[in-house]
Amino acid sequence: MMDKTRVFLADDHTLLRNALCMLLQGERDIEVVGEAGNGAGAVRGVIEVKPDVVLMDISLPDFDGVEATHKILEVLPGTKVIAVTMHMEDVYLLKFLNAGGMGYVHKSAADRDLLKAIQTVMNGEVFLSFVGVQVMARQYCSTESVSEIKPDILSERERQVLQLLARGFTSKEIGEKLYLSPRTIETYRERIAVKLKLEHRSDLVDYAIRYKLLGQ
């Protein structure tokens, strides 16, 4: 029997916590193991129950979700933290990702994006809702790119794979879209990383945003 993904909820709005709990409890492979309504309670609760995933609001009483995320990851660095928030300003998103967060979901899209976000971060990848991608696009497209390697170096297939990676699809999902095996997609991903001299998936996402490849 497959182990369930253990999830902790941190949000100061009881009604929203209840709604998220109902959404998650409908999934056979997910178990809600704790809740908190403030930053201190979130840190204390997560350290106590050691969940796989934390759904973290950015605006919490006493200290915010960014600080809570930082404190949690200092003690439990393997925890996957996803922000579920109304805040989509550049400063919040970038601070959260810099603190070690792995997912960013807008509350208005939680019913659509949350389960995919949990699956994505459990696979060790970063998830950004479409609104989050737009924020990153504003941030990076408004500044000069620091990369000197242009997208022309990539083949058409490599550009397709990069675009889908940046939009949050897993290797399995990309393979289904392109009629290729997940292993072939991983090979393309490795080849892209070598060509662009970028090691991490988040760097590939940044690159796609900087060079405006998402809509191609």
TrEMBL record:
GO terms of biological process kind: phosphorelay signal transduction system; regulation of DNA-templated transcription
Claim: Ribosomal protein is one of the keywords in the record: no
Cross-referenced SMART domains: HTH_LUXR, REC
PROSITE patterns in the record: HTH_LUXR_1 (PS00622), HTH_LUXR_2 (PS50043), RESPONSE_REGULATORY (PS50110)
HTH luxR-type domain ranges (all copies): 147-212
Domain of life: Bacteria
Domain Response regulatory: 6-122
Residues that bear 4-aspartylphosphate: 57
SUPFAM superfamilies: C-terminal effector domain of the bipartite response regulators, CheY-like
InterPro entries: CheY-like_superfamily, NreC/VraR/RcsB-like_REC, Sig_transdc_resp-reg_C-effctor, Sig_transdc_resp-reg_receiver, Tscrpt_reg_LuxR_C, WalR-like
Function description: May play the central regulatory role in sporulation. It may be an element of the effector pathway responsible for the activation of sporulation genes in response to nutritional stress. Spo0A may act in concert with spo0H (a sigma factor) to control the expression of some genes that are critical to the sporulation process.
Name this protein carries in UniProt: Stage 0 sporulation protein A homolog
Organism (species): Desulfosporosinus hippei DSM 8344
